[in-house]
Amino acid sequence: MPPPLLMDLNQIDFDRPAYDINAIRQVNPQRGAMEHLTAVVHVIPEKHTLCGYKDVTDKEFWIEGHMPGFPLMPGVIMCECIAQLAGFYARKYKLLAGDFVGFGGMNEVRFRAPVFPNCRLILIAQVTSVKAGRRAEFDFQGIVNDKMVFSGSMIGVPISSVFKPPEDT
To answer: Which positions are annotated as active-site residues?
Structure first.
């Protein structure tokens, strides 16, 4: 059984995003085929909750090779979509230090229904814990046509753009 929704989607105007793709690009570093967030439609800072979406098109890079003849959005791409939403919040509201937000882990991820091209994948994330500058935890959900298609929790961690190779021992 899916968990209760983190946000009442009936209260959101999906036609008037709070942040469009250009505003997202001011915060998130992903570009080209790795951009998996179309808009952020609603943010409730006092509840550390936000909602966005990915418009899944028939031009996605994975369509030709992931289940040929039956294009099914890979679960890892769904996870990347929600990570970009959570990363947007973590960077916009300065929850983490570092140059980028990276995956620190995912827990209790459940894929409940397939996602196909030409649909809107609604994404909801809610901060559940923050260790200032070092770690942010989120619960998340993905919805298509009023049906929860995946859910779980994730950890975001700061990543520095300065690569430091391990020392020789």
So the answer is: 66
Q: Do the beta carbons of residue 87 and residue 103 sit within 8 Å?
A: no
Domain boundaries, the chain: 16-159
CATH of domain 16-159: 3.10.129.10
Per-residue pLDDT of the chain (169 residues; tens, 9 = 90+): 899 999 999 999 999 999 999 999 999 999 999 999 999 999 999 999 999 999 999 999 999 999 888 999 999 999 999 999 999 999 999 999 888 999 999 999 999 999 999 999 999 999 999 998 899 999 999 999 999 999 999 999 999 887 666 676 5
Length of the chain as a residue count:
169
Closest among 24, 43, 44 to 35, alpha carbons compared: 24
